[in-house]
Amino acid sequence: MTEYKTIAVDFDGTLCFSSWPELGEPNLPLIEYLLKWKADGNKLILWTCRAGEALENAVIWCREHSLEFDAVNDNLPETIALYGNNSRKISCDYYIDDRMLLPTAVSS
């Protein structure tokens, strides 16, 4: 059992108010929350559909806003080692995304 928790966070519309592939304004309250989260010993994964140059630009943008990730579009190395493979599904405790849908109970 790990002593930390992991957040996977989306970039466009979540960390950055942007219109893909452009970069936009930072979501400062979220960035401040994630910086505290990381300072408390937890892990961060950047989980985005961006690839190639658009992904590189997003990572640079995050660094300019003091965000460093433990993994980018990938599982944490310790998670891969624990399970002996690298699942396509990111393993984390929480996802933060602008496309979130909260499930509701279905009555019969």
User: Into which percent range does the helicity of residues fall?
Assistant: 25-40%
Radius of gyration: 15 Å
Q: In terms of quaternary structure, what is this?
A: single chain
- Sheet-strand content, in percent, reads 15-25%
- Note the overall shape: globular
Structural class comes to: alpha/beta
Main sheet: strands, sense, barrel:
4 strands, parallel
Tell me, rounded to a whole number, the average pLDDT.
90
Ranges with pLDDT <50 over ≥5 residues? none
Count helical runs: 3
Kindly state the number of beta strands.
6
What are the secondary-structure elements, in order, as H or E?
EEEHEHEHE
Looking across the biggest beta sheet, what order are the strands in?
5-4-1-6
- Tell me the distance between the termini: 38 Å
